[in-house]
Known about the structure:
six-stranded mixed sheet, single chain
Amino acid sequence: MAGQMVAKYIDYLKNLNALSKLDMVLMGDDGTLTADFIKYSKHAMVQRRRNDSREKFIGYVLSLAGRDSDFQEISSPLLVGEYYFYAAAVMLEQEKYLLCVGPFYIEELISAMIESDLPRYSFGDIKSAVRLFRGIPQETAGPTRAPGRKEASVRQELDMREIHRLNPTAQIRYNAKHEKVIRTAIANGSMEMIRTYTDEYNYMPAVHMMAGEETLLRVKYGIASANSVYCRAAEDGGASSVVVRSICADFAQQIKDAGDVEQLINLRKKAALIYCRKVREARQQDYSLYVKRCIRWVEENLTEKVTLSRAADHCGISYDYLSKLIKKDCGCSFSQLVHRLRCQAAVCYLQHDLELWEVAEKCGYKNSSQFCRSFQNVYGVSPGR
């Protein structure tokens, strides 16, 4: 479909704008604006200065492209005012676009950070970033089929990981953001959320942590920190302190003995699942086998049409008997249980800075209004709060 690749590319630039702290302007070679994403400064004077430099740079790039129909990229980052910018041509659906990226500071040319909300880059990083930006449309479009939701999500995480490599400070924020979601899922005993999320989230060995040390040691300390956080989350979720602290000590030793980064990352995933399982066991210790099986089935099918009759078929018992068991064990109806589980998953997604409609879709609601009403009924507060 015409425009599909351009739309995907624009959406990706929006994500990169948020992650890399760089402005991104995509336009036709005649100057027609296609997309404009700005990383705003909190200070009006600083923002005006950035905008002035950016406008001058864009004018310069358009003049270059106008003189040279084969323009591909500028030879090196260009200083305009107090900022450096870079530009390159991007081919989308056989049409030529111009991508302007900036502003940024170059490590080799400054002695101190002038504006703290702009990242430092090396010359090599800038060119690597631009090559990555230009390659995305061809990678994501796919020659034969559009990628599935999970496949696209994993690819997006991997691409974002590469961007974060260029901005060391963001690596710590990236890990903290995702660890917060996992911590919440553990405290809620959300096994399905843990399985999905740990598969899609790539832990990043932040270079700012223990700067100067080798990667393996930095990752060991990072995973050890996550292990402690997961242990506390399991305690908060109702798991036995004796049990989870014993698990924590065991994983601490495994982390210490690990010989490579991949082993450490796998330990993190394994630990998250085990802590989450202990919370679930504590919460469901008085539940019947059929109710446990029903809850697991609902969690695995949140986005589908879940009904009591389908749940009963899955559990191998009658509609009425399952309804009575749920009422006895959970103190609510099947419909109320489904809303509880959906809103429980929503709590994790809400901490991932998703739009309400996206959370609603991921949790099986038709629209954000229906989701907000359900969330208010379950938790007594709005999703925003």
